[in-house]
Every structure is written in C-alpha cells, then in structure tokens.
Amino acid sequence: MKLLVIFCACSLTFFSTANAQAVPDPIHPNFSIAPVQEWEKQFDAFTFKKLEKDGHVLPYRFYQPVKIRPGKKYPLVLFFHGAGERGNDNRKQLMRFKPVAFWEKEPCYVIAPQCPAPGAGEPDGEATWVQTGFGWPSHQMKAQPTWPMQLAMLLLDSIIRNNNIDTNRIYVTGLSMGGFATWEILQREGHLFAAAVPVCGGADTSFAKQLTGIPIWAFHGDADSTVIPQRSIDMITRIRENGGREAKLTMYPGVGHGAWTPTYSNVEVWNWLFSQKKGDAGPAPAK
C-alpha cells in the first residue's frame, strides 16, 4: 500500500462564523473575504478537494509529488486535525500542523481532511472524528464510526486505488481530536498502515493487542489538562504488555496541550516515520 499521513488539529479562531458561511465551496475558497495567512503559504501546493457521499461533504487538502515517475510508488501520509480546526473552509485544518516540510525531502502523497463543526451551541454529535469526551480517562470505541471518520476511510481507500501509492508505506498522524482519530483508524483499519504518530490523543485500550505489529510513536505533554497524559501512557503500556516492541512514547516535561509543536517540527520524527515499512521489524524502541 502507499504512504498516507493523516493530520488532526485543535482550536482555531482564524475565521469568523460569518466568513465561514460566506465561503461555502471548499474547492474554491474566497480569499478576498479571508486573505491567505502567513502559515498557509507552506501549503500552497496542497490542492483543494472534497468527497461527497449520502448528503455529507468532507473537504480535504491533497498533495502529490511534483514529479511522478512512471511505475514508481510513493508513500502516503494521512493527517487528522483537532477540534478547533473543524469547519468547511478547507484551510484551517492545517493551521496547527506546522511540520518540517517533509514532502520536499521525501516525495509523497499527503491528505488532510476537514471534519465539520457543530452548530453554535450544539453538542458535537457526529461533528467529530471520534465520539468521546476528550478529557475522559477512558472510552470504548463505538461499533460504527462517525460519518466524518467513515468518509475519511473512504477517502483513504480512494486515494490508494487511484494514485501511485506504495501500500507498504502508508502513515497516519493527528493531534488532539486528530490524535484520537489516529488511534481509532488504527483500531479499525490497522492493516493499512506502516506506522503512526498519535499526538496528545487517546484510544480504547481493549484494542491494544491488535496494534502490537504496528510501529507507533506517541507524543504527549505531561502538563496537558485537556487530554490527560494517562491516555497515551495507558495505550502504549498495554501495547507493550501484549508484545508490541515497536510502540514508544515521548512525554514532554512541562508541556500542556500543545505537544504537536515540538513533535511536527522535529525532523527526527519524520525520518523515523518514513523509515518504516510494513513487514520490517525495525529497531526496538528505547524504554
């Protein structure tokens, strides 16, 4: 399978509700209403696309290698954003990503879907990647994924089928709500992925045994009061107890709910991710 990285972001106050309503087409953003911000320039080459099914629309940004050689397969990275970047503008889901421009060093495909936002004053309902309280000490995965997650999985399958994807190098990452999404897509479709980087997320620990064969490098701030650090600790601990030697956790001392900044700006994280291939044992993680 090809490489896919998924990224999930957090809170955002970049666009007003009025502006979001004035930009209903996620494929053709109205930049005269919401001018391009400095952070967006890094993603100029990410095209605007959308997936529609059963009355639902999933906006997403898509990047493909500048030069695609005939017959060559490329990795794929799937990125899941966090709760604060929800909407339909197809822009702000990348606001908190701020990675090293890994796609320039390692030619690959990247997809970054955008989860819809709940209405003003309304509960999240299905306007989330994963139905759980982000501050809860634990949760059980629902039998059926939310429709945004369902469409994200359909999108992933479509990108794999219709592009030159190396199916041995598909990766997923996400932050906050996207960290939960990263864990959940591993629980539902772990066979697709060569490695994962969940950032300040949480998962259903009863699925730990199913993830023992996937290289996972989780990150969390030990002062996080939004998603408690124990969520990452519990999941990595359970995976390792079940024999998952390629699961490791980096805990940032004194860092709150912003572990994505030191994580995605660290070139070593991306070097590690792209070095993973399905079927490779790889080095055992540090204890």
How would you describe this structure in keywords?
287 residues, disordered N terminus, hydrolase, AB_hydrolase_fold, 7 helices, Dienelactn_hydro, eight-stranded mixed beta sheet, signal, Alpha/beta hydrolase family protein, Rossmann fold, alpha/beta
Descriptive report:
- Keywords: Hydrolase, Signal.
- This is Alpha/beta hydrolase family protein.
- One of its GO terms (molecular function) is hydrolase activity.
- InterPro entries: AB_hydrolase_fold, Dienelactn_hydro, Plant_Biomass_Hydrol_Est.
- The chain has about 290 residues and is of the alpha/beta class.
- It has a single domain, classed as Alpha/Beta hydrolase fold, catalytic domain (Rossmann fold, 3-Layer(aba) Sandwich).
- The protein has seven helices and eight strands.
- The chain has an eight-stranded mixed sheet with strand order 1-2-4-3-5-6-7-8, covered by helices on one side.
- Helix 4 links the parallel strand 5 and strand 6.
SSE map:
Elements: H1 17-22, E1 47-53, E2 56-63, E3 74-80, H2 102-105, E4 109-113, H3 147-162, E5 165-175, H4 177-189, E6 195-199, E7 216-221, H5 230-241, E8 247-252, H6 260-264, H7 267-275
Parallel strand pairs: 3-4, 3-5, 5-6, 6-7, 7-8
Antiparallel strand pairs: 1-2, 2-4
